[in-house]
Automatic annotation (TrEMBL):
It is found in: Cell membrane. SUPFAM superfamilies: MFS general substrate transporter (SSF103473). The chain crosses the membrane at residues 15-40, 52-73, 80-99, 111-131, 138-162, 168-188, 209-231, 243-262, 274-293, 299-317, 338-358, 364-381. Residues 14-386 form the Major facilitator superfamily (MFS) profile domain. It is a multi-pass membrane protein. Pfam families: MFS_1 (PF07690). The keyword Heme does not apply. This is Putative MFS family arabinose efflux permease.
Amino acid sequence: MSAAKTSILHQPKQVWAVAFASVIAFMGIGLVDPILPAIAEQLEASPTDTEMLFTSYLLVTGFAMFFTSWISSRIGAKRTLMIGLALIVVFATAAALSGNVESIIGFRAGWGLGNALFISTALATIVGAASGGTSSAIILYEAALGLGIAIGPLLGGLLGSVTWRAPFFGTAALMAIGFIAITVLLKGDDKAARVPTKLSAPFRALGQPALALLAITAQFYNIGFFVLLAYTPFPLGFDAMGIGFTFFGWGVGLAVTSVWVAPLLTARLKRTTVLTVVLPLLALDLVAAGLFVTSQAGLVVAVIVGGLLLGILNTVLTECVMEATDLPRSVASSSYSAVRFLGGAIAPPLATTLADSFTAATPYYVAGGSVLVATLVVALGHRALRRVNDGAEAPAVEAQSIVAGAVA
């Protein structure tokens, strides 16, 4: 254990460059959360209009995921990372300079394209360059993911308290630093390691029953994820700083359970058992958010508890995808991630539409029902998912397959 910890802290410079850029990339998911009410007020947009900032970003990210393995297998990891970062810099800057919500929605879509190219390649790059073995590299990556998700809302709140444009400018500046770091520190040409994949491979992969079941599970689960993340700022009623600190707590909880609690659970229980236990707990948490929708304290507690549960689910679902098939990880994770993000894209505007048509609590109840559907998919498909419970692969096999793949 001490050796693993030491190896995590003593990594080559190129690993830290990609890890730093990963933190910034995942900050983009929650960055706009604290400034949604401010954008709606200052740009005279409806809540549903502002929720499209999430939808355009997630929709393009999900669609692009179908093609990222095809691209990276031809131009290489370094170029894919650099193109992704460059696109985020350009479109984040453009969003900051926008004068209406429609323009921001469009630029967030371009941001989503850059994000898809980056996150689909970052894990494989870290695994390929990290010291201490595959498990240490994955822990490092998950730590970067959790840190980014935690910092995003906090940075959005801090900068958003000055102006809603500041978080976009801040992200562009940090991504530019990440671009320079990868350009300088990520050495070598990975041309020899490239194995071109077919354009149709991610679509055909969904014909695998286990992968299709996991993708459907993640799609319904992500509706709950993004109702909690994207809709809650409106009933919460805090200013940008209050929203930022609330979702900072959410992100910290997510990071802690994804890196430490999820491995403890999967070491003692089957992965499908963990999913069928924790998914209903998330559904109950969403119902509780609906019941306490008029209580700021109640909503804050529901958000933080939700973060703790989401961290477990994110990690276990990712592990399941890695173990579910013999497909190259780049192909399997592209297919799974695409469906997952497309599910998330539905949730934000659906939530505000339901709130306008019924009550402020309705989106949480619908999200809870969606998470229960995800639970049923896992429970009814347990035979097709038997392979994900077989345990970890031999280290050499696991390393080879993950290096060939991308983030799920």
